[in-house]
Amino acid sequence: PCPRCARRRSRCCPWCGRGLEPTFRFCPACGGRLPAEPREEPAPAEQPPPPSPPPPPRSPAASPAARPSSRSPRKARSGPAVPLPAGAVLADRGGGQWRLGRLLEQGGCGLLYEAQSASGACPQKQRYSLKLDVKDGKIYNEQNFFQRAAKAGTVEKWKKWHSVPLLGIPSCVGFGLHADSYRFLVFSDLGRTLQSVLNDGLHLLKEKAAFQIVVRLLDCLEYIHENEYVHGDITAENIYLNPADLTQVTLAGYCFAFRYCPGGKHVAHREGSRTPHEGTMEFISLDSHKGAGPSRRSDLESLGYCLLKWLCGFLPWSDELDKVETVVEKKEKYRADVKCLLQLCFRQRSIPDALQSYLQQVMALGYEEKPDYEALRQLFKKPLEKMKASAYDSVDIKMVP
User: Fold this and answer.
1) Residue 162 CA to chain centroid, in angstroms?
2) Please, are residues 240 and 253 in contact by the beta-carbon 8 Å criterion?
3) Cα–Cα distance measured from residue 171 to residue 155, given in angstroms and rounded to the nearest whole number
4) Of 220, 372, 352, 239, nearest to 297 (Cα)?
5) What is the pTM of this model?
6) Residue 49 has what pLDDT?
7) In the chain, % of residues over pLDDT 70
8) Averaged pLDDT for residues 257-279
9) What domains does the chain contain, in order, with CATH numbers?
10) For the Protein kinase domain, which residue ranges apply (predicted)?
11) What span, in angstroms and rounded, lies between the C-alpha atoms of 242 and 197?
12) Where residue 230 falls among pLDDT bands split at 50, 70, 90?
């Protein structure tokens, strides 16, 4: 053991050598899982030692390298899902059948396909999206979220209670296992990701479009948070627009969703209690970087980074995403100085008052503090009213199907 750490009653990461708090289970610097510390047993009362039994005869098979470990074997995680061929038919738990179309996306949280009903239970012309991943992948977490917190009836009740005409929570219409290797979820058609629209050459959003999308996402986050979850990975890759109906803005991608308030009791803030840096590095919150469970402020912080990127095209750490410590240091620096962050990103352009107020309010939130969602929405609704627009109008953006 490191004598310096022994004096501080702390310990070092065996992978990168950084000093750690005794309660950490993951290293916030390199992300490595830390070995459990041996428990100190109380000293037994002095008794004469029992006679030692004679050692058994040693055989070559009894060498230390060949001895079985006293720890339970850890189940190896499956690799990424291998794409299935177009035309394959998958049966969900409710008896519905789904035929795969073309592969739309492939990433760390699974595969996304176009799909059609193959059982006759749904209109043939209606389009669906089918998300597929290995059975024990992050999609299991996503399935739990939809079963617990995003049932269609719950969503409709919330919309009526809050007088919201549209709420961008995906409608999960089926789920199941395939070939005992894959898990899948079926959604009503999600459309195109906002990131794919930006990649078309748009790169930046106009204030009107950005503010419309933010208000709609604040509705989604308020719904999710009231149902005990946080999203955990707000990014343009998880925001969908429907080219055929630009009033539809959907927040998808719940593979990093975290139940921050199980049974109404908020989890405690404990750095190093979870795998650090989970989610999209550019936009995740400082809580996620440090291995603490993400809370409501985490989602709002990530949304602020996204809005800034959509309006300016970059963040101060966008070009250094391979240097985790640098990203964390810059996020910590600018969290304490929002005005400096905005001046750096907007340069000679005028800074929207709504964005500055939003970031200042969000960065000041406590870990367990409930945000004032309506006050945050009003920051963006007021400039939209001056533009004679509503957040629930068609999003002011040009896109192709």
Assistant:
1) 25
2) no
3) 9
4) 372
5) 0.81
6) 52
7) 79
8) 95
9) 1-32 (no CATH), 89-188 (3.30.200.20), 192-386 (1.10.510.10)
10) 98-380
11) 11
12) very high
Over residues 54-71, the mean pLDDT reads 40
**Residue 37 pLDDT > 70:** no
- Angstrom distance (rounded) from CA 289 to CA 180: 34
Which residues make Cβ contacts (< 8 Å) with residue 207, sequence separation at least 6? Answer: 311, 352, 383
* pLDDT, position 14: 66
Long-range contacts at 100-108 (CB < 8 A, ≥ 24 apart): 100/130, 104/129, 105/193, 107/237, 108/80, 108/138
**Is the confidence at residue 386, as pLDDT, over 80?**
yes
Tokens 């101060």, residue located: 316
Partner residues linked to 393 by β-bridges: none
Give the mean pLDDT of 78-105.
Answer: 91
Can you tell me the distance from the alpha carbon of 116 to that of 102, in angstroms, rounded to the nearest whole number?
11
CB–CB of 185/252 below 8 Å? no
| Mean pLDDT along residues 271-291 | 95
Q: Is 233 a catalytic residue?
A: yes
Q: Which residues contact 26 (CB under 8 A, 6 or more apart)?
A: 32, 33, 34, 272, 273, 274, 275, 276, 291
One-letter amino acid at 261 equals C
395 token code pair: 């999003």
Long-range contacts of 345-353 (CB under 8 A, 24+ apart): 345/308, 345/311, 345/312, 345/314, 345/315, 345/316, 346/311, 346/312, 352/207, 352/311, 352/383, 353/383
Q: Which of 92, 233, 287, 299 is catalytic?
A: 233
Amino acid at 73: P
| DSSP-derived pairing of the beta strands 182-188 and 128-134 | antiparallel
By C-alpha distance, which of 176, 194, 193 is closest to 185?
176
Q: What interhelical angle do 207-226 and 152-161 show, nearest 10?
A: 110
Compute CA distances 122 → 61, 96, 97, 171, 217, whole Å. 62, 9, 10, 14, 29
CA 87 to chain CA mean position, Å: 31
